Amino acid sequence: MNQASVTHTPATDRAREALAVTLRGVDELIPQDDWLKKLVKSEATGVPLRIKLGLDPTAPDIHLGHTVVLNKMRQLQDLGHTVIFLIGDFTSMIGDPSGRNTTRPPLTAEQIKANAETYYRQASLVLDPERTEIRYNSEWSDPLGARGMIQLAAKYTVARMMERNDFHDRFKAGNSISVHEFLYPLMQGYDSVALKSDLELGGTDQKFNLLMGRHLQQEYGQEPQCILTMPLLEGLDGVEKMSKSKNNYIGISEDANTMFAKVLSISDELMWRWYLLLSFRSEADIGALRREVEGGRNPKEAKVLLAREITARFHGAPAADAAEQDFANRSKGGVPDEIPEVRLDGAPLGIAQLLKQANLAPSTSEANRLIEGGGVRVDSSVVSDKGLKLAAGSYVVQVGKRKFARVTLA
């Protein structure tokens, strides 16, 4: 960020500190000087700024990648500003075309309601529910009606709409664009008008929609909002953005032991990126920790601190302590205190079939692949024979580093 652009704006130390908090880890803050002016005005008047995050509840589960924006909301909330968690129940019926090369199928009202409830419950693990305003954009979108929708559509041109990358690319490729998709950015922008938003947050893929809010606020005679885009978080592989479809994610509803172990599996280089975007530690603390690692401290110790912080956020400190101990036990070849109990019939039973029936492998072919790779242990001994058959009895069966079951075979 270019700090020179804000030097001519009179600002207190507190406002500049708030600006620094705002800028941490962001991709863009537009326009930065306007945001500083808003911070100065808020401090002078004692009126909190209104900070908006709009979410279409297209899926009910949140992973750590989603929390990057929520973390920023919490930081701004802790500065004393009003956070508006906006559920796009109306816009979900249109479907966000951002980054899409096909028309998104709309959701039913029942799906939207169920997803929104789950999403907010999970988001409340990051946000302070006592200081969060929950709104649904059907409040003002439904009353618009046909006349209001036509009047709103008159405030933007087709030429400007076609400058949007996904529309431009789809049109050029000969892919269809439904007329209702043009309404999505208009309706998201109108949300900012209805809420009198001072700042709207979103991912880098939302920039067009966020700028639409600024444009429409000016059209309606309001002071335009600033926009803040956050980068997309790289997943466990350190390459692709975190995504369930790429299986490189950590769901915030995953159990504490799995969450802790997954954080420890990331690379030392990716760890610092995660510290910046996911940790609530100050940048000064993170910088000091990084210098310690560069000076010879084991990077795993820094990673354990990150894993503890993230796990404690979603499961509490006692669960984070237990997860750390569980990971230490497993790394030494030990068996966790609590593992699933499974009872099976059919002794003597082939090891591949046992793994499948005990839900330790999705299929016998995958079980055989795991055995070939040396990833299967029975009572701490590595299984190398795919033809092994186990007699009646009780066994502790381990697959990889994290899957265990105590199997009683009859």
UniProtKB/TrEMBL annotation:
PANTHER family in UniProt: TYROSINE--TRNA LIGASE (PTHR11766:SF1), TYROSYL-TRNA SYNTHETASE (PTHR11766)
Keywords: Aminoacyl-tRNA synthetase, ATP-binding, Cytoplasm, Ligase, Nucleotide-binding, Protein biosynthesis, RNA-binding
Role of this protein: Catalyzes the attachment of tyrosine to tRNA(Tyr) in a two-step reaction: tyrosine is first activated by ATP to form Tyr-AMP and then transferred to the acceptor end of tRNA(Tyr).
Protein name stated in the entry: Tyrosine--tRNA ligase
Subcellular location: Cytoplasm
Keyword RNA-binding applies: yes
CDD domains referenced in this protein's UniProt entry, alphabetically: S4, TyrRS_core
InterPro entries: aa-tRNA-synth_I_CS, aa-tRNA-synth_Ic, Rossmann-like_a/b/a_fold, S4_RNA-bd, S4_RNA-bd_sf, Tyr-tRNA-ligase, Tyr-tRNA-ligase_bac-type, Tyr-tRNA-ligase_bac_2
Subunit and partners: Homodimer.
Residues reported in the UniProt entry to bind ATP: K244
Protein encoded by which gene: tyrS
GO cellular component, one term: cytosol
Top EC class of this enzyme: ligase
Enzyme Commission designation: 6.1.1.1
A GO molecular function held by the record: RNA binding
Similarity comment text for this entry: Belongs to the class-I aminoacyl-tRNA synthetase family. TyrS type 2 subfamily.
Organism field: Ramlibacter tataouinensis
Biological processes annotated in GO: tyrosyl-tRNA aminoacylation
